[in-house]
Specification:
Length: 173
Amino acid sequence: MGGATFWGLCRLITSASTFEEAMTMCESGDATKVDKLVRDIYGGDYDKFNLKGSVVAASFGKLASIKDPKGCHDQDLALALLIMITQQIALISINIAKIHHVQDAIFFVGGFLRFNPIARRTLAFAAEYQGTTAHFLEHADFFGAIGALVAGFDISSQFQKPASVQPQSSWKR
């Protein structure tokens, strides 16, 4: 989930013809016009669970109750989508870090974040809310691919190529 997911869905719900145009739309959007917030449900902050009224309760949730959801502005839809995807990236990343006991600092990489201050702010907010810190590496567009490559090697043998994989009986030769 990341830039391609954002761009694919943005093409479906907005008139953006390029990724850059979609990102420009986000800059002038107001996601609160389509996202249902905690304050929309409880009239303000929800102190019992320490939730501020400005926290998203349901991405695109207002579209379920407005008279003409097709009348929403592309900018608002694009920003709501960007925030929804970025929040999911944050939740997945933070929970994986917690499982592996490395949640003190989380490093986010990828081309989607390089020129995307909105996504970086969203990730930083989510990380802080969960008690950790988000870090963003400059020029890290392909670190995910490098990580996948390294994961294919046995790290304990100092990055030597792993033994060949034997085909399973269900594989056709």
